[in-house]
Every structure is written in C-alpha cells, then in structure tokens.
Amino acid sequence: MTTTIPKFSFSLASLAVAEARLNLKISQIIAEIQSEDGMALRTLRTLMAAGMPPLGKHRSLIDVMAEQWVPDSERTADHLILRFGTAACAMAVGPDLGAFLLTLEGPQRG
Asked: Is it the case that residue 79 has pLDDT exceeding 60?
C-alpha cells in the first residue's frame, strides 16, 4: 500500500502515450494544466500513470511505444488520487512534468 505520493519520472515515450490516451498534444495538455479551471481528472490520472515509477521489472507506463498501457499504473494512480486527493496529486505531478519538459528545450543559443 502506497503511503506517500511518489516522484514521477516522465519520458518521451510515456508522454507520447499520454497524448494518444487523451487525444491531445502536449501543448494542449500543458494549456489545460495551466488553465484557471485546472486539469481534468482524466488528465491527472493519465499523467500520473505516464510518470509512475517503475513497478518491478516493467517501466512505469510502457517500455516502447508499441506496448500496451500498463493497467497497474492506472490502478496505482486511482489509489493515490483517492488517498491524497486531486490537489495533492496535481501538485506532485506538475513539478516533475515541468522538470522533464525543461530537459526537452535543449541548450540555450547565445
């Protein structure tokens, strides 16, 4: 049983699958997160599953794009949301997702 919200770890592959699951581009997901209303529950759940720390021998969500969504990640996300609430989970996902997205920006040109 999970007693704390884990640190989430995102990859290009996991975010690509999250985009496909939500039928949204990452820019649309970010806009939703930053909106006044905040992100939808399905978005939070999907991002949590996408960034779930490794469970056993498997990567959190997928090993490669062609693999099937890992249901255990969704069940764990559900458990965390029910235990800690949407606000706490969103506060945990946001910084970890933001940190990963910053790595995609590459070196600044000067």
From this structure: yes
Closest among 50, 5, 6 to 24, alpha carbons compared:
50
Alpha carbon 57 to its chain's center = 19
DSSP H helices in the chain: 12-22, 26-34, 41-51, 71-84, 86-104
Phi, psi of 64 (to 5 degrees): -140, 160
Tokens 């029910």 -> residue: 82
- Domain hosting residue 89, numbered range: 12-103
Domain assignment of residue 44, yes or no:
yes
Number of domains in the chain: 1
Task: Record the pTM.
Answer: 0.80
Contacts of 88-93 with CB under 8 Å at 24 or more apart are: 88/5, 89/5, 89/44, 89/48, 90/33, 90/38, 90/39, 90/44, 92/5, 92/6, 92/7, 92/8, 93/8, 93/44, 93/47, 93/48, 93/51
Instruction: Please state the rounded mean pLDDT for residues 37-43.
Output: 94
Q: Which tokens go with 92? A: 């945990």
For residue 5, being part of any structural domain is answered with no
